[in-house]
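#struct-help
A.M.: can someone run this one for me? Single chain, 150 residues.
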Amino acid sequence: MKTWIKRTLLGVAALVVAAVVAVFALATLGDRKLVRHVDVAVVAVPLAGDAASVERGGYLFRSRGCGDCHGRDGSGGVVVDDGKSMLIRAPNLTAGPGGVTAGYRPVDGGGALPVELSGLPIFDRARNFAGYRGFGVCRDLEGLGTRKER
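D.P.: on it. Structure tokens below:
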């Protein structure tokens, strides 16, 4: 058999073996992460309600473009509706009726860590917003403090 054919077959075989090893390694690592359990101690945090903190929060809301989707008052609304299949609604961020933060308690934010979120909105059959399907990634593992893996 010609040398170039042998080398080509050897290269293809090496790539197949590398792909099988990669798939096995990724499946094993994925299964380990799937069954991992992280305990986070939740403690109440003091809520800053003074005028300076409220003003700073308002400044951040206005300057970061949050109102472009959530409305100037944070009450949410339709962001995109092409009349066919694309309907995107921003949630109501207020603590009033219908707000996603209405039921928050000070203890709910005690385990707060910076989390990068990615997700898509979910709608029911009547095209009503039903929430988001996605995931969050916490990159601050040291901030978990008493992190325990099982």
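A.M.: thanks! DSSP finds three helices and four strands in the chain.
D.P.: also worth noting: The radius of gyration is 24 Å.
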